[in-house]
Structure formats: structure tokens, C-alpha cells
Design a protein that fits this description.
The chain folds into 7 domains: 109 residues, Rossmann fold (3-Layer(aba) Sandwich), CATH 3.40.50.20; 64 residues, Dna Ligase, domain 1 (2-Layer Sandwich), CATH 3.30.1490; 139 residues, ATP-grasp fold, B domain (D-amino Acid Aminotransferase, Chain A, domain 1); 116 residues, Orthogonal Bundle (Carbamoyl Phosphate Synthetase, Chain A, domain 4); 141 residues, Rossmann fold (3-Layer(aba) Sandwich), CATH 3.40.50.20; 64 residues, Dna Ligase, domain 1 (2-Layer Sandwich); 176 residues, ATP-grasp fold, B domain (D-amino Acid Aminotransferase, Chain A, domain 1), CATH 3.30.470. The chain has 950 residues and is α+β, with helices and mostly antiparallel strands. The radius of gyration is 27 Å and the shape is globular. The strands form 7 sheets. A 7-stranded antiparallel β-sheet has the order 14-13-10-11-12-15-16, sandwiched between helices. 35% of the residues lie in helices and 20% in strands. α18 crosses α19 and α20 packs across α30.
Length: 950
């Protein structure tokens, strides 16, 4: 059945600012959806308040509204666009679904004659209202855990008395497990029940028997209006029930499920999806399976929308769920649509994987002092990475190498835990680093049966770990000159990095690399093709692996490499890796724009990234996508294979910048600002020398390498002092100290976490105003794209400040100093591309806090506020294709744009919420005001000093 031709204009609801539990996977879904609808000639109107994302880029939709996600905004848009026929709320996570429900209750869709597509109201209600959901399951004969609903404290107590402990409390209509908790003891019940009831917008919780130790699975489904259903991906949680899926290590396809149980689970999922409502679109279903030979299946929940896992499933299979779901919402059927990767088979074709995917979440507990770091039903991770390999072991290693937490993979880096009690505790209370702790436990000799008893992780996974450890032990018996080829090949096939093998052999990483080259053990690249090579794939989406040589009948030996190198001029763009506080989706925005600009300049674009949630890792963003860790060994091998003209590092945040030194050392061209200039800006001593030459003021400072030197410096600099390590992002480890005792404690703390780091001690300009400028420079000309003034005083990290564009309170004299300093510093650093400079203003003197010659967090914000494609321009400057003077700048902004940070403190109830120099916000929204008399500005300004912590 072809598409519904009466739909000509669609409203897409986005998910708002990034918070824990709802991150940029919905930016990816929304972007895909907008492109998918526009391909069909449909007008797309989009509402989302998040300025950092690709989704809200003017190019993504016909009309983009950067407005708060409220029914008031929805009414404004529907009045401005009376031609809107339908609303698609399934791409914006729980936020969009909840807003859609509210608009339905207020009769807004009916008033404006707008219909829902992709889901129906009944489906949202049935799946979100725990009582209705249970009733439905029992009606259609699907097993579920014994559970009852409570909408009062008293009712909750009665249910607990009836069921006994352990119990699970789950609030209705919340996201990312907000307010959910396990209750093991009677003493904790009252507090956790109250918290759950408060977290639910309808003051309702579901209390169920805890299925502790059961295995957890997810299925991603698509259904069309003819009731065809395909299962895109099966995902197994390595962690048993009890840890939120967003915080679980997950594996695709499912590894430890018998085929009979898998078929039963498929049938149940399809039955559930067909029973919740009559709609065409995507669905995510979660199940628990008993860990015995009976393999009893219990349904946990169903989400009638694209979910966090559907971004993962799309990247894992190469099947773009959001893109196809959007077309199904228009009335197409699966058999009418094309498989996007093969371009020759239909979308009514379930993907088959001939590789393994491992997803590991990325946490940021360091930002939440005093946070409970154990994992449970409430999601706490801020991002995730995905590894693709030929085996579980290879994918697991690649995922651990992608995390950017100073580990080289599992074990073999000397950083494991050695204390028995500590290991047992971390296994007992699921810790964020348990993926490494399991390896440490095996290394210590703790039996697998004991690890299984404590963690309830399936024995199959633990045996995979054990095999890795046995291999490490065997390799450690050799030296670099005696290691047999078979063992080296096996270690590489199982994902061990050259650094790890060097650690086992007691030699240098470069020696292992040379040995690999001599033995012809080289990475080969394979296609992610959705169909296990049954049909030819047209889309260049690759992962790396190692294969044994094949010998032909004529005696020729070779390894099969599916990545064909063209003779076009190429550029590599390094992505930003997993989202974390301080380096989020705004760098993905910059990478995508960089890729598109390089394409316009005639380059073949090559993207390297490992974050499954983003648009940069969409299979058709760059000409070639390598879904690989942003980890030196992987990058170097891709560069050796592709031989690009150069690499762009300044769009991928600190992740990409940190690789600049290695690229420079290996003689690989860096497009844009040189490595020396990047290093000069990071090295505080050299940078201050430059400022002195330029006669630009900066706060008095000193550099120390230990607590003793820091205390001596304090005598010269005076308190308060801002203490920070060099080469970090998001203000990691920054603190304002006001006496010697605080100074000593903080220095010791930093050096414990970041050993051998140089510490910068700055005299803190108390009560100063903070401002920042972003500019594009071509080495000769400078154009300032935006100057922003922070509403909070100096001392709160720029990422946590409310900031206005343009400034609201800086006089002509101060503004001129900012402009002059920005131009002088950009030229002195020989910047080619983007630069961000931060200032402190006291007594009308503008001091320099720091300069970052790269894309900054604020660039997407300024681009959206002024309606100008600044990253596109900057990339063309980096590539040497254009000068700044070649562009006609025409910024448009009536009034002011305010960047408002968003925090996820509700995930950490006992944490100190005071703000300081270390960034804690997880996302941001944009607010447009006509003038400074606006009530919202008054409100922000009156609270500006409330959170300042020293």
C-alpha cells in the first residue's frame, strides 16, 4: 500500500536538552526521520529546544523552532502553520511522547485537525500506565512478574506486606529509570516509595517482585499497516536483571539464548506489538529469562517509539530504524521500501549479523562528588561506545579501548585492581568498572563459579574472559623475538591492542607494530552489510578485524579486505568518541558539518568514530565510515590504508586534539591549526609567555608538579587560587581553594587521579564578569562569530553558565578590548579554523583565562542563534579552499539568545549541587528573548550567585 498522499506537512517533536536517560540517540532518530520525510516531498516542521544538535540545524527541516517543549509552543507553531496534517512524536523519546499526550488531553490536536502518525494514543497509554499494561499482558497470555500499582503511600505499604522483599519500585511516565529502585530491606522501603511517588508525574508507582539474577533481553521491532513485523535486532544484556539497560553492557546478537527460547520470545514480542494499538512504526520490547534450563520468559516493558537501543540496533545492523519507521508512519509497507544498505533487497528482510557488537556505557561519576557509584534501576551513564568485531572478545576489547578512561583494553596494562576485598565488593555491588574488574578477579585466581554466584553473569561470558586471560598468560612466557606468529595473530584476533601485547612482552608498542608488519599480520576491513554478505552492499560502512592468510591453488597468499581505496583526494575527520560531561553532542554537530563542507570541496570524506548515538556515525553522512575506536592504533592503520591528504582534529573536541601530537610525530598532515599552535595554547607556560609579548593581561599564575611546589607558589600568588591540571576538558579537576590546607588536599587528589600532570595555579579574580568569544581565522584574517557574556560570575565553568549572545552588560571600552585580544591571539597562534577564547573582566580590564584553537561547545549555539553555517566556513578555511574574506557574513538575531545549561542531579540525590570551575551540566537549551525586560532574564539574573561554590 503506497504512502498516504493526504499527508503533506508533518510536525516532528524533539527530545529537548541532553539529560541522563535521554541523550543524543534521539537527535540521531529525529535527524534521520526529518531526512526520510523530506525525501518523500513532505514539508517538515520541527520543534526542539536543544541548540547543540544536528537535528535543529536549519538544513534539517523546512522550519525549525528552537522553542521550549510545551503545549504553548505547540499551539504557536500550529497557528503559524495551519497546513500541518500530522504529528510524529515517536522520535523524541519520553519527552516527546509525554508532550504529545498532554496536547491530546487538552484537545490541541483535535482543535487544529492534526492526526498522530507512528503511534496511537492508546498505545502510549497502555504501555506507560503500568496497570493497563499488566491487564493487557494477562489478556493476551504473556507472563509478567507479580506486580501491583500504588498511587498512595498507604497502598504501597500494603503491597509490600503482601509480596515481601526484595521488591522493585517503578514510577509511571518517567524516563531512564528516574525514581526506580530495588528495595532489599524493610527499613529502606518508606524513603524509596516516597521518592518513587514524587518522581512520577501522575503520582503512581508499580511495585513488583524483583527478578534478581534473571537474564535480560531486548528486541527491536518494526511494523507496517499491513501488520508485517520484522525483528531488526536481538540484544542481550551481559548484566542480569537489576541494572538499567542504559547502564548495562549489551551484546548483539543475543549470545546465550537457546533457539527455541529465542523463537518463543520473537512470537511474544510480535504478539505484544500487535496488541497495543493499530499503528505503523518502531517498538522496543524488553524481557527477562530465568537463568535455569527452563528459560521461563517474562515481559518487562514495551516502548512504542524509537528508543536508546534502536540507535544502537541501527548502527549494529546497518538497518536505519528511524528512517524506515518514518516511512511506515506515512503509510508505506515494508515490502515497498528498499534496504538502505544493499539497495537491492526489500526492507521486509531481517538483518543477519556475521559479527558481534558490544556496547559499554560511559559514566562521569567524577563530576558528582559523593555520588553513589553503584548501578541499579536508575540510569546513570552519560554516553556509550560500541565495538564491532568478528568475535565477542574482539568487540569487547574494541569497546573498552573506545571508552577514553586511560585503559588500553581489558587487563595487560598494569592498571587492574589487586586487592581481593575491593574486587569482591565491586563485583557484589555492580560498579561502573565491572567490565574490567571481572578480568582482575580471574587474574587473581577467583574461580569462575564464585564470580558467577556473585554477579549472576552468564557462565558463557565469564569463560570468554577466562580464555583471554589464559592467552595473556601464554604470551607473557615469550619475548618479542621469540613470539610465534600464531600467538600474535590470535591475540590480535581477540582484540588485544599492540600496547597490551607490548606490556605482556615487556617491550615497546612500536616493536609489536613492526613485528606485525614483518609477519604480515595486518588489519583488514569488513563491511557492515545487514545480510551477512548474502547480497552486495552499496554503502561503505566498515569495521576492522584480523584474518589468517588464504592460500590459492597457485600458491598466492592474501587476506580479504573489503575496503577498496579510491584514487580521489581524501580527508579523515576524527570524531569525538563517547558523550561525556564537557564533551557532548556539540562536537558531533561540528564533525558532521566538517564532513559535509569537505565533500563540497571535492574531498572523499572518511569518518572515524565509535559512538552509536550520533549522526556522525550514520552510514551515509561521510563517504566512508570506519566504526572504530578513536584510539591511536586503529586510526594509524586506517590512515596507512587510505593515505588521506590530511586529518581534521579540531572538530572532535579533546578526543581528537589529544591525537594531534602523535599525528605530527608520524608526519601525518593536520589540516588547519598546526600541532605546535595547539600545544602552545594548552601549555600554560608557553601561552603566558605569548600573552606577555602581546602585552595582553592575564591573571598571575604558576606551574607546579607536586604539593610542595604548589605551597611555595601560593606564597607568591595569594588566595583565592584556581587550581587545575593541564590538557583536560570540561574543567576536570578544577577547584577554587582559599587556604593552604585546601590547596594541599586538592593537589594530592588531582595527582592521584591524573599522575605526572602539570598543575596550573591562577590567582582567582573574585567577582569578575566572564565572557567568551568564538572566531574563525585563516592565519591572516579574523572574523569574530560571536561574543557571549556569562550571567553567573567568573568561577562557574562556562559550560554551566547561563550566557547571553550578544553581551548584555559590557561597555564599548571592554568590548573593544575583547575584539582586539581575540584577533591578536588568533593571529599569534597562527590559527587556521576555529578558536574560542575565555575572558575575565574586572575593573574594566579584560584578562585572558584560556584560548582553545578548536571548535568549542558554543559554536553550534552561535550558529543557530545567528542562522549562519560557521563550521562549514571554518572547515573550508582549514582545508585551504577559502579565506575568511571570501565569505559574506550576515548574522540575524533580534534581541538576545540565552544558553541555559541543564543538569541531571536528580539521578544523584545526595550529591553536592553547588557549581564551580568543574563542569557538571549534561546538556543545554536555547532561549530567545526580545529584550532585557523579559521576566525569564530577570529570573536568571537574580539567581546568578546562588550556586557558586569555592
Amino acid at each position: 500500500m503506497p504512502k498516504d498522499s493526504s499527508i503533506k506537512s508533518v510536525l516532528i517533536i524533539g527530545s529537548g536538552p541532553i539529560i541522563i536517560g535521554q541523550a543524543c540517540e534521539f537527535d540521531y532518530s529525529g535527524s534521520q526521520s526529518a531526512r526520510s520525510l523530506r525525501e518523500e516531498g513532505i514539508e517538515v516542521i520541527l520543534i526542539n529546544s536543544n541548540p547543540a544538535t544536528i537535528m535543529t540545524d536549519p538544513a534539517m527541516a523546512d522550519h525549525v523552532y528552537l522553542k521550549p517543549l510545551t503545549t504553548k509552543s505547540i499551539i504557536e507553531i500550529l497557528k503559524a502553520h495551519p497546513n500541518i496534517d500530522a504529528v510524529l512524536p515517536t522520535m523524541g523519546g519520553q519527552t516527546a511522547l509525554n508532550l504529545c499526550l498532554e496536547a491530546e488531553e487538552k484537545g490541541i490536536w483535535k482543535d487544529f485537525n492534526v492526526r498522530l502518525i507512528g503511534v496511537d494514543i492508546n498505545a502510549i497509554n497502555v504501555t506507560e500506565d503500568r496497570d493497563q499494561f499488566k491487564t493487557l499482558l494477562s489478556k493476551i497470555g504473556i507472563p509478567y512478574a507479580p506486580a501491583k500499582t500504588a498511587n498512595s503511600f498507604l497502598k504501597g505499604k500494603e503491597i509490600a506486606q503482601e509480596f515481601g522483599f526484595p521488591l522493585v519500585i517503578r514510577p509511571s511516565f518517567t524516563l531512564g529509570g528516574t525514581g526506580a529502585a530495588f528495595v532489599h530491606r524493610k527499613e529502606d522501603f518508606d524513603e524509596l516509595l516516597t521518592r518513587g511517588l514524587e518522581a512520577s508525574p501522575i503520582h503512581e508507582v508499580l511495585i513488583d517482585k524483583a527478578l534478581l539474577g534473571w537474564k535480560e533481553y531486548e528486541l527491536e521491532l518494526l511494523r507496517d499497516q499491513n501488520d508485517n513485523v520484522v525483528i531488526i535486532c536481538s540484544i542481550e544484556n551481559m548484566d542480569p536483571m537489576g541494572i538499567h539497560t542504559g547502564d548495562s553492557i549489551t551484546v548483539a546478537p543475543a549470545m546465550t539464548l537457546s533457539d527455541t527460547t529465542f523463537q518463543k520470545m520473537r512470537d511474544m514480542a510480535i504478539h505484544m506489538m500487535r496488541s497495543i494499538g493499530n499503528f505503523a512504526g518502531g517498538c522496543n520490547v524488553q524481557f527477562a529469562v530465568s537463568p535455569d534450563e527452563k528459560e521461563d520468559i517474562v515481559a518487562i516493558e514495551i516502548n512504542p517509539r524509537v528508543s536508546r537501543s534502536s540507535a544502537l540496533a541501527s548502527k549494529a545492523t546497518g538497518y536505519p530504524i528511524a528512517k524506515i519507521a518514518s516511512k511506515l508512519a506515512l503509510g508505506y509497507t515494508l515490502d515497498e521500501l528498499q534496504n538502505q544498505i544493499t539497495k537491492s533487497t526489500s526492507a521486509l528482510f531481517e538483518p543477519t549479523l556475521d559479527y558481534v557488537i558490544v556496547k559499554i556505557p560511559r559514566w562521569n561519576f567524577d563530576k558528582f562528588e559523593g555520588a553513589d557509584r553503584t548501578l541499579g534501576l536508575q540510569m546513570k551513564s552519560v554516553g556509550e561506545v560500541m565495538g564491532i568485531g568478528r568475535s565477542f572478545q574482539e568487540a569487547l576489547h574494541k569497546a573498552t579501548q573506545s571508552l577514553e578512561i586511560k585503559r588500553n583494553g581489558l587487563g595487560a596494562d598494569g592498571k587492574g585492581y589487586k586487592n581481593y576485598e575491593q574486587i569482591i565488593e565491586k563485583l557484589t555491588y555492580a560498579s561502573w568498572d565491572r567490565v574490567f574488574v571481572i578480568y582482575d578477579a580471574i587474574q587473581m585466581g577467583i574461580p569462575l563459579s564464585r564470580i558467577h554466584e556473585i554477579t549472576k553473569i552468564d557462565m558463557w561470558f565469564l569463560k570468554q574472559y577466562e580464555e583471554l586471560y589464559f592467552l595473556e598468560k601464554e604470551i607473557s612466557n615469550y619475548r618479542i623475538d621469540t613470539l610465534p606468529k600464531e600467538l600474535l595473530l590470535e591475540a590480535k584476533q581477540k582484540g588485544y591492542g599492540d600496547r597490551q601485547i607490548a606490556h605482556m612482552l615487556g617491550c615497546l608498542e612500536s616493536q609489536v607494530y613492526r613485528l606485525r608488519e614483518d609477519m604480515n599480520i595486518r588489519r583488514v576491513y569488513k563491511l557492515v552489510d545487514t545480510c551477512a554478505a548474502e547480497f552486495k552492499a552499496k554503502t561503505p560502512y566498515y569495521y576492522s578485524t584480523f584474518e589468517a592468510e588464504i592460500e590459492t591453488a597457485t600458491g598466492e597468499r592474501y587476506v580479504s579486505n573489503e575496503s577498496i581505496v579510491t584514487d580521489r583526494k581524501k580527508v579523515v575527520v576524527l570524531g569525538s568518541g563517547p558523550n561525556r560531561i564537557g564533551q557532548g553532542i556539540e562536537f558531533d554537530y561540528s564533525c558532521v558539518h566538517g564532513v559535509l563542507a569537505a565533500k563540497e570541496c571535492g574531498y572523499e570524506t572518511i569518518m572515524i568514530n565509535c559512538n552509536p548515538e550520533t549522526v556522525s556515525t550514520d552510514f551515509d553522512t561521510a563517504d566512508k565510515l570506519y566504526f572504530e575506536p578513536v584510539f591511536w592504533e586503529h586510526i594509524y592503520d586506517i590512515i596507512q590504508h587510505e593515505k588521506p591528504e590530511g586529518v581534521i582534529v579540531q572538530l572532535g573536541g579533546q578526543t581528537a586534539l589529544k591525537l594531534a601530537e602523535k599525528l605530527n610525530r608520524y608526519g601525518i598532515k593536520i589540516f588547519g591549526t598546526s600541532y605546535d599552535a595547539l600545544d602552545l595554547a594548552e601549555d600554560r607556560g608557553r601561552f603566558s609567555g605569548l600573552l606577555k609579548e602581546l602585552n595582553i593581561p592575564y591573571p598571575k599564575f604558576g606551574v607546579a608538579e607536586n604539593a610542595e611546589q604548589a605551597l611555595q607558589l601560593a606564597d607568591q600568588l595569594e588566595f583565592p587560587l584556581l587550581v587545575r591540571p593541564s590538557y583536560v576538558l570540561g574543567g576536570q579537576g578544577m577547584k577554587i581553594v582559599i587556604n593552604k590546607q585546601e590547596l594541599e588536599e586538592h593537589v594530592i587528589e588531582i595527582l592521584k587521579h591524573i599522575p605526572n600532570n602539570k598543575l596550573l595555579l591562577d590567582y582567582y579574580l573574585d567577582g569578575a564578569i566572564e565572557a567568551e568569544a568564538d572566531a574563525i581565522c585563516d592565519g591572516e584574517n579574523v572574523y569574530i562569530i560571536g561574543i557571549m557574556e556569562h550571567i553567573e560570575p567568573c568561577g562557574i565553568h562556562s559550560g554551566d553558565s547561563n550566557a547571553t549572545l550578544p553581551p548584555f552588560n559590557l561597555g564599548e571600552f571592554v568590548m573593544q578590548q575583547i575584539k582586539d585580544h581575540t584577533k591578536n591571539i588568533a593571529l599569534a597562534l597562527q590559527t587556521v579554523g576555529l578558536i574560542n577564547i575565555q575572558f575575565a573582566i574586572k575593573d574594566d580590564i579584560v584578562y585572558i583565562i584560556e584560548a582553545n584553537p578548536r571548535a568549542s561547545r558554543t559554536v553550534p549555539f552561535i550558529a543557530k542563534a545567528y542562522g549562519e553555517p560557521y563550521v562549514n566556513y571554518a572547515t573550508k578555511v582549514m582545508l585551504g579552499e577559502k579565506k575568511v574574506t571570501d565569505f559574506t557574513f550576515n548574522p540575524k538575531l533580534n534581541g538576545f539568545a540565552i544558553k541555559q545549561p541543564v543538569f541531571s542531579f536528580n539521578k544523584f540525590p545526595n550529591v553536592n549541587k553547588a557549581l564551580g570551575p568543574e563542569m557538571k551540566s549534561t546538556g543545554e537549551s536555547i532561549l530567545f528573548i526580545e529584550d532585557l525586560k523579559d521576566d525569564q532574564f530577570y529570573d536568571l539574573y537574580s539567581r546568578r550567585k546562588m550556586y557558586l561554590s569555592k
